[in-house]
Amino acid sequence: QNMDSTLHYIHNDSDLSTNSSFSPEEERKSKVQDVVPQALLDQYLSMTDPSRAQTVDTEIAKHCAYSLPGVALTLGRQNWHCLKDTYETLASDMQWKVRRTLAFSIHELAVILGDQLTAGDLVPVFNGFLKDLDEVRIGVLKHLHDFLKLLHVDKRREYLYQLQEFLVTDNSRNWRFRAELAEQLILLLDLYSARDIYDYLRPIAFSLCADKVSSVRWISYKLVSEMVKKLYMASTPTFVVDLMNELVEKFCRCHKWSGRQTFVFICQTISEDDCLPMDQFA
């Protein structure tokens, strides 16, 4: 009872500054739910107040961000309105560690919220993370397939134009970033049409095949072989024929030995994984 009264005192409406257009009374009602004790939720929400975070613990916002998907799951998507403002506050936090934590879990939150809330409330945050520091972008990249598969087909296609941007990193030595991109592209082949794969994913795959780091190249050989397999099974045969002709032109006839070696390794992967019938391979 004492705790309740203390919490009520601490989280008095007059004590919480808000930029919202709602009146304090409306603001309070928008945060009310009946799943957990309201005082407990109020305490959690208050932890993202920048003034408190500075005076209490600089790590508190990171802990809040880490717990948020669990809180959202507990409250249910019908009570997302209680957490939406807090999520947006954390997503624009000055500390990259806070944003990174949210970037790593945004795909989980999308599953909890469903497609409508994801499209309205999470996609803008996701787009912001795509332009953030590499430390934040890697969180989005590691679960790119998990997030994009939850979006509507038209919305998903919009990201085809941005995949190329993942080839550019703050630090060119960050080869693990490019390796992760190759891994994700293999998964993304299932989400896009043959034309989209040929037009957008093929140039990225070829660029990764010529990477300076061998670990990136090895994953990229697998990516190209899976691409060949996917395009061969498509209804339009011209895509796979054009792709194979380009492999010959770009790598087999390359004036550098490394390019010709790449061609041999891609052929090996295509053969081992049965990506083409042998007569077509020949």
From TrEMBL:
Keyword Repeat: yes
Chain intervals for the UniProt region annotation (Disordered): 1-31
Alphabetical list of Gene3D superfamilies matching this protein: Leucine-rich Repeat Variant
Keywords: Repeat
Signal peptide: none
PANTHER family in UniProt: SERINE/THREONINE-PROTEIN PHOSPHATASE PP2A 65 KDA REGULATORY SUBUNIT, SERINE_THREONINE-PROTEIN PHOSPHATASE 4 REGULATORY SUBUNIT 1
Name of the molecule in the record: PP4R1 phosphatase
